[in-house]
Amino acid sequence: MKIPYICGPLTELSPEIQDETKLFYQKIADLCKEVFGYRAFVPHEQYDPLKHAFWTPQQVDIFERKQVCDLTSLLIVVAIAPSWGGGIEVEMANQNHIPVIILCEQKKLEQRKVSRLLRGNPAVVQIISYASENDALSKLQQALQAYVQKVHA
């Protein structure tokens, strides 16, 4: 069964914001369960860079590549900070015809902190600009419900 995949930075985030970021990703996964009936895949729950440091980079690549390319229905990108991994996942989604939704804080979009290359990827079907976490979850819920209606139309 294919499920949504939550993509966002983690490895290089400061310790002060790592926990709140993980919680945000988990809230998005739970929101997917509300909308789709099943929870999204959240990479840090399997491959947290601190808790699961024993996984080699090659093992993480093999597992996450399979997850994105073969087991993902929708990639949800949370562009809260620069990331060297997110662009790879977006391109894997593009190569496998998986739609991508990007969530980005309004101020980051206004300051052009999310690259045009990422925003212009052909897989990107929607960019959601948000002012707060609650705003992000509300707008994402609307987008996911519209996605479900479109897929089942």
How would you describe this structure in keywords?
single chain, 153 residues, alpha/beta, Rossmann fold, four-stranded parallel beta sheet, 52% helix, 16% strand
Structure description:
- This protein has a four-stranded parallel sheet, sandwiched between helices.
- It is built from seven helices and four strands, in the order βαααβαβααβα.
- The protein has a single domain (3-151), classed as 3-Layer(aba) Sandwich (Rossmann fold), CATH 3.40.50.
- 52% of the residues lie in helices and 16% in strands.
- The two termini are 20 Å apart.
- The chain is of the alpha/beta class.
Break the fold down into its secondary structure elements and pairings.
Elements: E1 3-7, H1 15-36, H2 44-47, H3 57-71, E2 72-78, H4 86-95, E3 100-105, H5 106-110, H6 116-119, E4 124-130, H7 133-151
Parallel strand pairs: 1-2, 2-3, 3-4
